Amino acid sequence: MPAATQRAELTRDRTGENLPLVGVVVVNHNRADATSTCIASIAGSRYERVQLLVVDNGSTDRSAEVLMHRHAGLHLIRLESNLGFTGGYNLGIKEVLRLGADLVLLLNDDAIATPDAIGQLVCAASSWPSAGLLGPKLVMLNDPTTILSAGCTLQRGRLTHRGLGERDSAQDSEPCRVDSLSGSALLATTPLVPQTGLLADRSFVY
After folding, report:
1. What are the tens digits of pLDDT across the range 90-124?
2. How far apart are CA 27 and CA 57, in angstroms?
3. Can you give the pTM of this predicted structure?
4. Cβ(176)–Cβ(39) under 8 Å?
5. What is the 3-state secondary structure (H, E, C) of the chain?
6. 86, 147, 192, 201: which is deepest, by most CB within 10 A?
7. Do 142 and 129 form a contact (C-beta atoms < 8 A)?
């Protein structure tokens, strides 16, 4: 399902001083309206230490100009050509790490984060220090009571989304280990990057 039908949620928040800096990377390609909505959701986050970076992936529809006009002070990197999903995100990962990010959140341009989503992910990362990748529960944007993905399970060589199409419940909000995560929203701890490298360039996607 397209990420346009998604909203990020988790269960707990974290308060206090000296919180980790979360570098949020959003890649745009000819989708200014969807990306603008995503940016606005990040701006509305209750988590204070966020560094948002938008990578414009060779858009041909003046997306970059539209986004800069709508969002004053937006940190945007403009690419002359489309480097694909992996190329755009890899460049963004390098940039937010250079800016000092402690955690890196990759967010699809058509996903919308609830105000507590980033803080809840940071809380989960703190509670699960051995986890290299974390992901939020995803729910349908047009029906937030219905789950889109609560992580993925691997069965007989095939990945399936946990809870897909089911009614949301408190049980589905408890952090747990899963076989895989949806690429629509991924939080990576910075030690993971040098250990595993960046996204594989062969997974161009678009």
Report:
1. 999 999 999 999 999 999 998 999 999 999 999 88
2. 7
3. 0.77
4. no
5. CCHHHEEEECCCCCCCCCCCCEEEEEEECCCHHHHHHHHHHHHCCCCCCEEEEEEEECCCCCHHHHHHHHCCCCCEEEECCCCHHHHHHHHHHHHHHHCCCCEEEEECCCEEECCCHHHHHHHHHHHCCCCCEECCEEEECCEEEEEEECCEEEECCEEEECCCCCECCHHHHCCCCCCECCCCEEEEECCHHHHHCCCCCCCCCC
6. 147
7. no
Residue type, 79: L
Q: Using an 8 Å Cβ cutoff, are 53 and 95 in contact? A: yes
Sequence-distant (6+) residues with CB within 8 A of 187 are 22, 103, 104, 105, 106, 121, 122, 125, 133, 134, 135
158-176 average pLDDT score: 69
Q: What domains lie within the chain, and their CATH numbers?
A: 3-135+183-191 (3.90.550.10)
In tens, the pLDDT along 71-95 reads 999 999 999 888 877 888 899 999 9
Residue 31 tokens, joined: 């989708």
